[in-house]
Amino acid sequence: MAPSIDYHCPCLASSPAPPPPHLPSSSYSFHPLHELFFCEECDAVRCNRCVSVEVSGYYCPNCLFEVPSASVRAEKNRCARNCFMCPNCRNTLSVVPSDPPDMDDGRGSTAALNAVGEPPFFLYCNHCRWDSAEVDITFEKPTGLAAQLQKHEDSAPDSLEFERLKEHFEPFLRASSSSALAGPTPASHSHHAHVNPITAAASSALARDIPGVAKYAPHPRGRRDKGPRDEMSEYRSRVEVGGTSAMGEADVDFMRRIEEESEVAAVEQRWANSWATSLRTSDLKPLRIPLHSKKSKRCPTCRHILIKPEQKAQSVRFKIKLVAANYLPSMTVALPRPLDIVRRGARPPADDPSGTPGLHAGSTYPFQIALTNPLYDPIQVRLSVQRQIPPAVSAAAAAAATEGGATEKSRRPPFAVSLPSSAFPIAAFAEAWEYEDDEDMFGVDGDEFGLESRDGRETQGKAKSKTVGVLEKRANVTIVGGEVVIGKDARGEVKFNMLVSYTYRSDDALPEDEVRGTPSRTSKAPEMKTFSFSTAVNLGPVVPREENRMDTD
Amino acid sequence: MPPIRDKFTIHSKAVVCQDVELKGDITIGSGTIVHPKATIFAIAGPIVIGAGCIIEESAIIVNRRKEVMRIGDDNLFEIQCRVESPSVGNCNTVSTRARVHHTVRISSYCVIGAGCLVVPAEDEVLDEFTVVYGPEAARRAWSGRGKVQEADLRRKHAEYLRETLPKFNRVRRGDGHG
Ligand SMILES: [Zn+2]
Ligand SMILES: [Zn+2]
Ligand SMILES: [Zn+2]
Ligand SMILES: [Zn+2]
Q1: Minimal Cα–Cα distance from B155 to chain A, Å?
Q2: What is the pLDDT of residues A483-540, one digit of tens each?
Q3: How confident is the model at residue A67 (pLDDT cuts 50, 70, 90)?
């Protein structure tokens, strides 16, 4: 796997410190940059886990018809026009007429194929050649097919049961919505609030005895429901489910007798159905195409919209689009191929015949981080390795993590990371044509930046080439080098948290002047702002020592 | 192996573009269309193609066997497919980038889906109305409903090409009757 950098979203957590990246659960907190949003109001990163989502419109992905929400409900979230999906291969189906009768030899006369076509009509898959006549679904007219199919869907036992349930809950829903209107707006949803009728109804339904299922015994916490639970009549289902139903036995029987696996419908062929369906391939029915929705997303704190698509189904644009990629520098990390910076003992060249990626325990590797500035103003960036404890105090100084992780907890792969310690600039983003003039600016030597780091850091190995510091600057991209020293007993993946702080010229600043050019290492000028975010850098798995030639040092 | 002797017999009503690679003993029947950049290689035995077939750009038809490779009528070989079957019946479709090995004989009304590989180690005959489709080259039997309409469409397709292709491409004439 290629090395990667993911960005942290604190998701309204109280502590801004990111979780240690080697914990599996941390993967929920780190995201690729392109999935993140940025709230200008809160000056914070937002991710898909913490934003609130609302549907801004439904449409059919096949005919791109925008379906009004009232119809969405009535039509059960599927397209009510002539859009159908092949139950066998999920291609779209077309409506075709029957072949003219009495023409057994399809290559005979070309005569009588009239334009309208012969009834009965059926749905036909151009890809796998499934057709609905195989399951006895044909139509007298080539129109209004969806309504006919929906009638069939709606007569499914599960559908009828669902309708009945809805009917049963209807009064409670109505009561709850009216009481919600009357009461104060529940801005903070407290769990101790008065039991909502829907919840009460649901919990009473769930508390019912189900044969074969152990009864759920809630803790005797002594709290009495004062909700309208008592007002609710018990729901009686149409069909008694549970136990061994006839359906279940028929399925078992069918499964016992199958001769070919193709007789059984695959899960992919069944799960686009709204309701439970038969296991048999021969029972697969054409499906109305499920609708898609366009969604807007809001900041969970200030409720401002972060992203809002254009209403039209054909459009792939957005009316509002506050994505993090437009605010934070994007970063990619790479391990340069030639592994010439090897520390202890020369690595046997036979070790990497094909240049297979691998970080060998007991070696030192340079890595490069390319940062791209999306802003129209230059920025100053500072990188630092974050330990388990938020390095708030040493943000500026922390150039390296623990050296030789023996002191760290054993679960953490012992490795040490060096990053350029001082701030470095990234030029402003400009439209492509603007770059043509600064051709000679390219490849500016980064010697004035970030070299302090090497003084203390690079004691051993007597750097043949610069590895830690600014390596390259061109346009709005700056490439910096870092170094990782992998302990002899390291295993697992080389993952670490990196804090990125960048200083930019704030929009609400006064005139722009010359302040921007100077590194804002000293106290920030009033119009400069600093934004910090955490990332998880994954350099890849460590090849443990045992797999290497045993070379001692 | 003796050097391949070229012998092309092209029906006067066939349309074979100039920019086509032909090698060996090849017979092309009435009304058959061979698009530019198609390749027909009769390496060992001859290849006989029937009437009303359409062979699209970059399609490759190869006969590696000594026996005659017979391709029937009204078959469609789509762009970049490769067919080495010793025999092909009528009204088949070999879709874009599909590959059919020389171990497979194709009967009639078969469809080899786009990108499907049909390369069994053992000799095999595809039954009539076999459909091979999808990434796993799954197979199923087509009911045959719609075959008349499809044949009609194929004929119109060929008819259109017979009119249009010669307007924009140099057309090759057979050695025999021209
Ligand atoms: Zn979040
Ligand atoms: Zn539709
Ligand atoms: Zn299909
Ligand atoms: Zn906000």
Answers
A1: 9
A2: 999 888 888 888 999 999 999 987 654 444 444 444 444 444 457 899 999 999 999 8
A3: very high
Q: Which ligand is located closest to the Cα atom of residue A84?
A: 2
Question: Is the torsion defined by CA of A27, A32, A34, A36 positive or negative?
Answer: positive
Question: Containing H/E element for A151?
Answer: helix A145-154
pTM: 0.71
| Strand A30-31 to B99-100 pairing | unpaired
Sign (positive or negative) of CA dihedral B14, B18, B23, B24: positive
Q: Which domains does chain A have, with CATH numbers?
A: 4-36+323-338+356-510+526-547 (2.60.40.10)
Cα dihedral sign for A166, A167, A168, A170?
positive
The three-state secondary structure class of A513 is coil
Within A406-490, where are the H helices?
452-457
Helices A197-206, A157-182: inter-axial angle, 10-degree rounding: 150
Contact A425, A378 (CB under 8 A): yes
Superfamily of structural domain B7-166: Hexapeptide repeat proteins (2.160.10.10)
Flag whether pLDDT at B79 surpasses 70.
yes
Q: Which residues have a beta carbon within 5 Å of ligand 2, which is an ion?
A: A 60, 62-63, 79, 81, 83
> In chain B, what residues touch A98 (CB-CB under 8 Å)?
145
Type of residue found at A522? T
Crossing angle for the helix pair A145-154 and A157-182, to the nearest 10 degrees = 90
B38, B21 in Cβ contact below 8 A?
yes
- Paired sense of beta strands A93-98 and A118-125, if any: antiparallel
pLDDT tens, position by position, A224-252: 444 455 567 788 877 766 555 556 788 88
Mean pLDDT within A431-458: 47
Q: From residue A223, give the alpha-carbon distance in Å to each of A198, A199, A215.
A: 18, 15, 19
Q: Percent of chain A having pLDDT more than 90?
A: 34
Residue given tokens 């080259």 in the structure block: B137
With H, G, I as helix, E, B as strand and everything else as coil, classify residue A219: coil
Interface test with A, best of B109, B148, B152, B153 (most A CBs within 10 A): B148
Q: What is the ipTM of this complex?
A: 0.88
User: Checking DSSP bridges between strand A84-85 and strand A52-59, what pairing results, if any?
Assistant: unpaired
Cα three-residue angle A134-A139-A145, rounded to 5 degrees: 105
A92-101, A258-267, A297-306, B119-128 — which is least confidently predicted?
Answer: A258-267
Phi-psi region of A55 (alpha: psi -120 to 50; beta: other; left: phi over 0): beta
Residues of B in contact with A103 (CB under 8 A): 148
Bond from prior residue into A142 cis (ω within 30 degrees of 0)? no
Residue of higher predicted confidence among B109 and A179: B109
DSSP letters, A63-101, are T-PEEPHHHHHHTTTB--SS-EE-TTT-PBEEEEEEPPS
For residue A430, give the amino acid letter.
A
> What number of CA atoms fall less than 13 Å from residue A257's CA on the CB side?
8
**Touching check for B157 and chain A: CB below 8 Å?**
no
Sign of CA pseudo-dihedral B15, B18, B19, B20 = positive
Reduced to 3 states (helix: H, G, I; strand: E, B; else coil), residue A324 is helix
Tokens found for residue B132: 């091979």
Check: CB of residue A166 under 8 Å from CB of residue A89.
Answer: no
Q: What distance in Å separates the CA atoms of residue A337 and residue A334, rounded to the nearest whole number?
A: 9
Task: Show the 3-state SS of A24-59.
Answer: HHHHHCEECHHHCEEECCCCEEECCCCCEEEEEEEE
List phi, psi (to 5°) of A484: -125, 130
Name chain B contacts of A113, Cβ cutoff 8 Å.
148-149, 152
Nearest to B90 among A107, A127, A134 (CB): A107
Q: How far is the alpha carbon of A97 from chain B, nearest alpha carbon, in Å?
A: 8
